[in-house]
């Protein structure tokens, strides 16, 4: 039971971080379908930091270094999206998809070349971080507390404050609702959209490293992050683009994702003899059903997905 | 004389087809260049040779017979890729981004292999089953989109994973006992193998070369005709350009969305059957990621300028470099460098619109300048 709670919180943390990233980007008016790719690149940065850091370093330092590395990677990668979608007015769906594919291919190429440089016989795309990973967690009784849970909680509170209580947040949201109106009162729409996308890169990058360190101590980069970026987008839609609702939605989705990790530990679930694939499918099925019920009166930012052109009205 | 020449150049450059081809070539060149730079970073010493290996693909074989045989293999995999690309291209005409093609492909593979291996049906029924299964996956996306306003990209991705796990479960009944792969179609049910009609002779007896290849090309031409010559094709394009206007002028845009996605799904499903019913590949029931065929289809359709005929060449090119990547020296360069190049090409395709705007702006300026000069004279 404790294990189920632990995994639920852990996966919910991932979903909160990434969904908030999507939330910032969409409130500024850019649909970020590249979150999946941003997660992969953020995860890569964090995983390599974990690999090269000595496990003797103080735990706090390791956590901080990993977060910084993932943030930098996520933000840098999201620049590709911001530049294409905001400045060159490219199709946001196409660019997002391209970034997802590029991230998986680039991460695989990078990890493989690192592995091959170390040992010519090792052609796998796996990064191991068994020892340093211990710094990320703390045991409270049988519950394994992960520092990223705290990070996600802080991000949730900060997102709420920034979006609703600061001048920056309100301006950001104005750019996603009615950019022409925002522009007419002197807000630079392009800057605001860049800010929204870069924040989503930061949160997506951190979400990536949390995902690949959840319960495992090595990651095979060939598989990317298994559609988790898109699950986060479903969480965001279910949460109606509002931070607090996103938090609750993430807990629900996190629970179903956690079930697939720990179902065999429950006697009554194991006795049902349902194949593992069914549990693996569960989060995707739930999100499809949830989307079907919540999308028809959606509160999506009105101008999302439409490139802003100063000359049009 | 000189002005005549520039005029000819201008009118040549302002043709949309010429611009699309130019843009595609530019994307390819830049994609290859960036891929080459990546190779240089990994190991500068064999990088030039490596990029040439990717481009040469089957030409690395010295004899003509061997090269023809491996050209056959590239074509065998290009046919399903073309089908996925057509699926995405067709849906995009209606303004729908069918990223679910990957899942529809998986559904098609599941249906075709289940009918072939478990039920022992002949190939034509298996093809039909794949067509319907892929189409059904498309219908789900279409229904969610038109009646419940669910974003087709997100529902498509969710269905990709649902499809993968379902097909893994479905096919685990027909797998080999010692391996995760499904049993070979050729040995269990030869009647399910697509007929070759003697084409294998052209490719040094490559038995995987079947009617799938010409069929895929025929379907591409058929789609071109449907899109440009029929009322249905016109309605689809109208829905894609302005949904509300289409509804206002009496087109049933909801029905059109669902039909479009049914056809798109069916094309991707058929694509899977085109590969798995040749026996070239077996399905692994333990695979934990969605096959990349559907995603590469996105690359091919955008590189092909979103035109069915252009897509034929683009699909071949994408498969050519993907196959070429497998000839790299695996102890120095990862074969995924080809995926890397394709991904960069898709990213660059996002700039095509910008490129065309820029080019047209430049041409306009050139014309104005000429007018001014003419006035001065």
Please characterize this protein's 3D structure.
The complex is a heterodimer of chains A (313) and B (377). Chain A has helices spanning 2-28, 35-52, 59-87, 92-118, 147-165, 167-177, 179-184, 189-212, 228-238, 243-262, 267-272, 276-294, and strands at residues 126-128, 137-140, 143-146, 218-220. Chain A is mainly α. In chain A, the strands form 2 sheets. A two-stranded antiparallel sheet of chain A has the order 1-4. A two-stranded antiparallel sheet of chain A has the order 2-3. In chain A, helix 9 (228-238) crosses helix 10 (243-262). Chain A starts with a helix and ends in a 19-residue tail after the last helix. The mean pLDDT of chain A is 87. With 377 residues, chain B is mostly helical. Chain B has one domain: ABC transporter involved in vitamin B12 uptake, BtuC (Orthogonal Bundle), CATH 1.10.3470. Helices cover 72% and strands 0% of the residues of chain B. In chain B, helix 2 (16-42) packs antiparallel against helix 15 (337-349), helix 5 packs antiparallel against helix 6 (123-148) and helix 5 crosses helix 12 (253-276). The chains are: A mainly alpha (313), B mainly alpha (377). At the A-B interface, helix 4, helix 9 and helix 12 of A face helix 7, helix 13 and helix 15 of B.
